[in-house]
Design a protein that fits this description.
The structure holds 3 protein chains of 3 kinds.
Chain A: E1 3-4, H1 7-23, H2 27-31, E2 38-44, H3 47-54, H4 56-63, E3 66-72, H5 74-86, E4 94-98, H6 102-105, H7 113-119, H8 128-132, E5 135-136, E6 139-140, E7 143-155, H9 156-161, H10 170-183, E8 188-191, H11 198-210, E9 220-221, E10 224-225, H12 242-256, H13 267-275, E11 279-285, H14 290-293, E12 304-307, E13 319-327, H15 334-347, H16 350-358, H17 367-370, H18 373-378, H19 381-390, E14 394-395, H20 405-420, H21 426-444
Parallel strand pairs in A: 2-3, 2-4, 8-11, 13-14
Antiparallel strand pairs in A: 1-3, 4-13, 5-6, 7-11, 7-12, 7-13, 9-10
Chain B: H1 2-37, E1 39-40, E2 50-51, H2 55-62, H3 64-96, H4 102-109, H5 111-114, H6 117-128, H7 134-141, H8 153-181, H9 185-193, H10 198-227, H11 230-235, H12 247-257, H13 261-287
Antiparallel strand pairs in B: 1-2
Helix pairs in contact in B: 1-13, 2-13, 3-8, 3-10, 3-12, 6-8, 8-10, 9-10, 10-13, 12-13
Chain C: E1 4-13, E2 16-26, E3 31-35, H1 42-50, E4 57-62, E5 65-66, E6 77-80, H2 92-101, H3 111-124, H4 140-152, E7 158-162, H5 170-187, E8 190-195, H6 198-204, E9 207-212, E10 215-220, H7 222-227, H8 232-237, E11 244-253, E12 256-261, E13 264-267, H9 270-277, E14 283-288, E15 293-295, E16 301-311, E17 314-321, E18 324-330, E19 341-346, E20 352-354, E21 361-362, H10 365-369
Parallel strand pairs in C: 3-8, 3-9, 6-7, 7-8
Antiparallel strand pairs in C: 1-2, 1-4, 4-5, 9-10, 11-12, 11-14, 12-13, 14-20, 15-19, 16-17, 16-19, 17-18, 20-21
Helix pairs in contact in C: 2-3, 2-4
The chains are: A alpha/beta, B mainly alpha, C alpha+beta.
Chain lengths: 447, 292, 370
């Protein structure tokens, strides 16, 4: 599982390049932001870091220094970030942080505020929601690299063929899925994350957001929730509620119009089944649309339209914003802090974001990049997400940034899977999730 | 007297490095796990660990998911080990025939043992997957409809067992085969002189003589099967429902995903106790020469 | 109780030929001892009679009926293996009981009879206190007795004992010998007993078979083999002080025929002269008892001491003369050292003559007629 950049050949190549540039009067190193130094990054096995791995050699040349990029699976990364925080001096200059993890990592991250001020950095090119998503208590804890929402992708051509309306609501989605499952031989209605554990747990809380509800009792603020200041009394779980029941019912209804093996389907698989024409719709993290948009063999290429997460009755459409930020560990060697900041500016610069989109990462948090023609051609999802961002349809409260978020996801991922496999009724699954999480919160000492 | 004491002191000096090593490598981690299990210890929480007494253990008692995972583990161990033993046994006897080509076949049959369990899990996940899987495609050639190999409770358990059996049967075969090869030929001659049929020789001579090897391989495989986590991780994530959630996978999700180290440690301690007790029973049986 | 005949037996292990064309007749109810140097094929022959090894040429018959197609069990043979072959997972009692529980024995033994029989055998072999022990807790000699017991316990038609008592101490071995003999008398079981102990063979055998290199040198009653060996090998093989076997050129002196040893003429007695005439090539092999030689400072032949040892009140010497070894026994003991030169006398009157090329006995024509 653990992937590492294959250090030996690249390292050797870098060494030769470096040696060459020193001999040549350090022409190359003077140009790159790394200035011949080496930067250590702890990343995640998601498209953007996979792209960095793919074009590692090119990036080192551009950066004018060596890049040590350790790419880890989600769970391992999570654990390593926490363990690294216990060290006296951090082993990494830059770490990847998932949006909902900021709550948990808050004590371990460096505030970018002073650096931004000193260097006159301008964050206004980023989507408002992406930029402010990493602000906690007036501190900027991360710079957006790959923030993207979970949205719905559907086959325009198929919907046209059957005369169906775009699936903007749960009702419309279920209806369309029903029709397609019945009329088509080998195409199912909708693909989604129903595999046990994290996959299904995430599905539950993002769908709960479709009903305008969060998994814990946070303060309402218009259609959204106050996330900057979550107090202990906000930690009561809100699973066994009307919204929770509606969510469970929706999942059960979707199960009927899903492809075979749905109970074991997770992130990669749902997109690939959709890409192969196995289903007419799929929930998808926007950046992953490159899997079919950049594959000439896929029937979904060019035939896909994008919508926010379909909403439940009476609720506005809200897509969960997630994805990866670059952050600097609080325990970084002070002498390396400046280098880390230089590197982050470079890695999140318009040029680099553009470069990533051309290699399979369909995410642009920068308006300037989203306008580019070649970016829109490679990633039709980017202008769609841009529109959602402008319309205020992206939000992060579905996954509140609290340390217990993973526990919530895990409990729901286990309980709801029992419900979907018919071992438990919806009521029982909701009741026991509520009870288990309540116990968990008490154990953690919130109330 | 003083000489005796001197000898004793020398013995202590000589043995202590080994004891220290044993302590550092074997005993300390277990003790540390016990220590953690007595605390509210969450890596996710910025608060320092606090003492919890037996709280985590009491929690286990009421945790339906824990008891379920114990049951699932027991089922998995029983199925996997019994099937592996039966198949491995049969193969060992087959390979024990001195036929041409069998030698090469036997060497080839060992390949699965060398594969990484994670890779094995991944391969079987893709083979049994309902959307891309080759297995269902092959079934469809025979006019059999797609089977929910990984999403039906019973089938999912059998699928994980199948992957384990695929990987570990050759190991069982190898151990039994080696034992068979080392059986004294003349004892079989004596039995033949005493007029036993081949079948009776198998039942009354071969089996009892293979007993130690069988028990050893049983213990090794059972403990190994108890620790199995990779196949579940790759193939089912413990689903559907909790029907393939073996204890190690529950420990993993608790300790590494939810980062509740205290509770995960409590489960790990229970697991260590169970393994030790179970192994004791077998080891005693192996050591006991008279029991036939 | 069967007559066993082995006819034209041949056997090879790969390229190595153990038996070429072996014949042996074992009368019904006899006690046969097989004697021969290590590796001559004794165990192999036993295994083929037992039916453990059926890949061979020639025939084996029990009471005239071929048994090649019969399994070991069907031949009803009991065998004590040279390496014991006890069942390691059973106790001593389990081993003794085992043959009686075999399927072919079904119904022949009641549980009580089995117990009784095991007790009898255990008493006979003095292993009753060991009945409950595991096999790996026994000494070599104890294992050997269990192995013997297992062969005896079910009264087979033929008993094959491959060195059944070699690992016992002298006293026990002696007791066991007479027990075996007694059992044989009572039961009359045809028995083949392999041994390296000549005393044992002479004492026990009705028929003594001497083997060498996969061939049978002589098969005859024990005393006959001893006193009237059929080959030079047999002549030199038996005896506490084996006969001296010398291959010497024939010579004539003063009209008397004789042999030349160490440049000296050794006259032959008239009885042997006629036999010596049959020899071809001018040489002959002669076997002489130890009594034929005497150390004598005035003796005609000189030899070098190659080995010497003391036995009860006597001294045994091996002298090297003419490149051949001479065994001498003398009652007076005198200090000697290897390499000393001694003179001795030779008296050929007790000699036996053999063809130097084939080793076959040369008998005077007269005696043969008689
Ligand atoms: N399985 C076998 N494969 C090859 N050669 C064998 C085998 N068994 C016996 N031999 C050979 O056959 C010859 C006869 O062996 P056998 O065991 O019959 O000797 P033996 O007379 O019983 O000797 P000992 O007195 O030492 O027991 C020996 O040269 C031996 O090396
Ligand atoms: Mg032998």
């Amino acid at each position: 599982m653990t992937r590492r950049t294959s250090a030996a050949p690249r390292g050797a190549l870098t060494g030769i390049l470096l040696a060459g540039s020193i001999l040549a009067g350090s022409a190359a190193s003077a140009e790159g932001p790394l200035e011949g130094r080496s930067i250590r990054i702890l990343g995640i096995g998601d498209p953007v870091f996979q792209v960095m791995q793919k074009i590692h050699g090119q990036m080192e040349e551009m950066g004018g220094g060596s890049i040590q990029l350790d790419v880890r699976p989600f769970d391992v990364l999570h654990q390593q970030v926490l363990l690294n925080a216990q060290n006296d001096v951090s082993n990494y200059d830059i770490i990847a942080v998932d949006l909902p993890q900021f709550g948990e990592y808050m004590p371990y991250l460096t505030d970018f505020g002073p650096m931004i001020e000193a260097s006159g950095y301008d964050g206004s090119d980023f989507h408002e929601v992406a930029w402010t998503g990493a602000q906690f208590g007036g501190r900027q804890l991360g710079i957006p690299l790959q923030p993207h929402p979970e949205i719905l992708a559907y086959r325009k051509d198929v919907f046209e063929e059957y005369g169906l309306e775009p699936p903007t609501t749960h009702e419309a989605l279920l209806h369309a899925a029903q029709v397609i499952s019945e009329k088509s031989d080998d195409m199912s209605g909708v693909c989604w994350n129903a595999a046990r554990g994290t996959a299904l747990g995430q599905t539950f809380i993002t769908v709960m957001g479709d009903f305008g509800a969060a998994p814990i009792d946070m303060e309402k603020q218009g259609d959204d929730f106050e996330m900057g200041d979550i107090k202990p009394e906000n930690m009561h779980p809100t699973i066994d509620t009307e919204a929770g029941k509606a969510t469970a019912d929706y999942l059960l209804a979707m199960e009927e119009v899903s492809p075979p093996g749905i109970l074991n389907m997770a992130w990669d698989e749902r997109v690939r089944v959709y890409a192969n024409g196995g289903c007419a719709m799929t929930y998808i993290w926007a950046g992953r649309s490159a899997i079919f948009e950049q594959d000439d063999q896929s029937p979904a290429k060019g035939n896909t339209a994008y919508l926010p997460h379909p909403s439940g009755p009476g609720a506005p459409p809200r897509s969960t914003l997630g994805g990866w930020y670059l952050a600097i560990p609080a325990n970084i060697d002070p002498e390396r802090k400046e280098l880390a900041w230089e590197a982050i500016q470079w890695l999140s610069s318009p040029e680099m974001i553009e470069l990533y989109t051309q290699h399979g990462n369909c995410v642009s948090p920068r308006r300037s990049v989203s306008q580019l023609e070649n970016v829109q051609a490679a990633c039709p999802v980017i202008p769609a997400v841009d529109r959602m961002a402008e319309a205020g349809e992206l939000a992060g409260w579905q996954r509140p940034p609290v340390p217990e978020i993973q526990k919530i996801v895990d409990v729901l991922g286990a309980e709801m899977h029992q419900m979907l496999s018919g071992d438990k009724s919806a009521e029982d699954a909701l009741e026991s999730s509520q009870r288990l999480l309540d116990r968990e919160m008490r154990k953690a000492g919130y109330y | 007297m003083s000489r005796n004491r001197e000898a004793k002191r020398a013995a202590i000096v000589l043995v202590s490095p080994a004891m220290l090593l044993l302590f550092a490598l074997n005993i300390f981690p277990v003790l540390y796990a016990v220590y953690i299990s007595l605390h509210h210890w969450s890596l996710a929480s910025p608060n320092p660990p606090r003492f919890a007494g037996l709280f985590n253990y009491q929690e286990l008692w009421y945790d339906g998911r824990f008891s379920n995972s114990l049951g699932v583990s027991a089922t998995f161990i029983a199925l996997a080990v019994l099937i592996e033993l039966a198949l491995g046994f049969g193969l060992a006897f087959l390979f024990n025939r001195k036929l041409r080509g069998l030698e090469t076949l036997r060497k080839l049959s060992l390949l699965p043992v060398m594969a990484m369990p994670l890779v094995v899990g991944l391969v079987w996940f893709y083979m049994l997957n309902q959307n891309f899987g080759v297995t269902n495609w092959v079934l469809s050639l025979f006019g059999i409809g797609a089977q929910p190999f990984l999403t039906d409770g019973t089938l999912a358990m059998l699928s994980v067992v199948l992957a384990d059996v695929w990987q570990w049967t050759p190991f069982v075969m190898l151990v039994i085969f080696a034992a068979l090869q080392s059986l004294p030929e003349y004892v079989f001659e004596a039995a033949r002189m005493d007029g036993l049929t081949e079948r009776e020789i198998f039942r009354r001579i071969t089996l009892p003589l293979l007993r130690p090897a069988i028990l050893v391989v049983l213990v090794i495989r059972a403990i190994d099967a108890f620790r199995m986590i990779e196949l579940v991780f790759m193939m089912t994530k413990g689903g559907p429902g909790g029907s393939t959630e073996v204890l190690p996978w529950y420990i993993y999700t608790t300790g590494f995903l939810s980062l509740d180290l205290g509770y995960a440690a409590a489960m790990a301690v229970v697991m260590i106790v169970l393994v030790t007790l179970g192994a004791q029973v077998f080891v005693r049986k192996i050591a006991d020469p008279g029991a036939a | 109780m069967a007559r066993i005949s082995v006819e034209g037996l041949s056997k090879s292990f790969g390229a190595y030929r153990v038996f070429e064309d072996l014949d042996l007749a074992i009368p019904k109810g006899s006690y046969v001892c097989l004697l021969g140097p290590s590796g001559c094929g004794k165990s192999t022959l036993m295994r083929m009679i037992a039916g453990l090894d059926t890949e061979h040429g020639g025939h084996i018959r029990f009471d005239g009926k071929p048994v090649e197609h019969l399994t070991a069990a069907q031949r009803d043979v009991g065998m004590a293996f040279q390496n014991y072959a006890l069942y390691p997972h059973l106790t001593v009692e389990g081993n003794l009981r085992f043959p009686m529980k075999a399927p072919l024995q079904k119904g022949r033994w009641s549980a009580a009879q089995m117990t009784e029989r095991v007790g009898e055998v255990a008493d006979l072999l003095q292993i009753r206190p060991l009945l409950g022990r595991a096999i790996n807790q026994l000494s070599g000699g104890q294992q050997q007795r269990v192995s013997l017991g297992r062969a005896l316990v079910r009264h087979p038609k033929v008993l094959l004992l491959d060195e059944p008592v070699t690992h016992l101490d002298a006293r026990l071995r002696y007791a066991m010998r007479s027990e075996l003999k007694r059992i044989h008398k009572v039961m009359g079981t045809t028995t083949v007993h392999v041994t390296h102990d000549q005393g044992e063979a002479l004492a026990m055998a009705d028929l003594l078979v001497i083997m060498r290199g996969g061939r049978i040198e002589q098969a005859a009653p024990a005393m006959e083999v001893y006193s009237d060996p059929a080959t030079a090998f047999v002549a030199g093989f038996l005896g506490a002080v084996p006969r001296t076997v010398l291959t010497l050129p024939l010579s004539e002196r003063d009209g008397t025929a004789g042999l030349r040893l160490g440049g000296q003429h050794v006259p032959l007695p008239p009885a042997l002269v006629a036999a010596a005439r049959q020899a071809g090539g001018g040489t002959v092999t002669i076997a002489l008892p130890a009594s034929a030689f005497a150390v004598d400072p005035d003796g005609p032949v000189e030899g070098t001491v190659a080995a010497h040892e003391m036995i009860e009140g006597a001294q045994r010497l091996v002298l090297q003369a003419d490149g051949q070894r001479v065994n001498i026994q003398r009652s007076e003991t005198a200090p000697v050292a290897n390499g000393d030169r001694l003179r001795f006398r030779v008296d050929a009157s007790e000699g036996l003559l053999f063809d130097a090329a084939t080793g076959d006995r040369l008998r005077p024509p007269l005696r043969r007629a008689a």
